[in-house]
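Sequence and fold:
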Amino acid sequence: MKYLKPFFLVTDIGFIIYWIVTFFNLIPKSWAFKDYDNSIIIAWNWSFFPLDILISITGLSSLYLYNKNREAWKTFALISLILTFCSGLQAITFWVYSNDYEITWWVMNLYLMIYPLFFLKMFLKRDKDETSESFRGAKTI
């Protein structure tokens, strides 16, 4: 959690700030992605809102549970990491299909795709080790 905490804080608080800024229409046109004013693109962007807020809720809940020494933090962290990867992947895939290569938005979404991979590996390895351990302890008939 020592290394994961800063990523969760930046990502989860970043999502909350992004959606507040988006709601109040505070993103300057020069920073917006291609066709930002198009109603279909607006709907596409807002379709991420539930996913991004769920990422923030699970990530921040994971930090809270970790601070309370509750084992459930791992489950919330794993969910948050998987959803974060999915959020970044969906955006990047859309921009590939729409031939939009705005570097600023790509960097942010590649961050969402890449950072979880480093931590997911640790969670999945731990689960695999725990599963192997439980099989070794099982009695055979």
Observations:
- The chain has a mean pLDDT of 87.
- The radius of gyration is 18 Å.
- The first helix runs from residue 4 to 23.
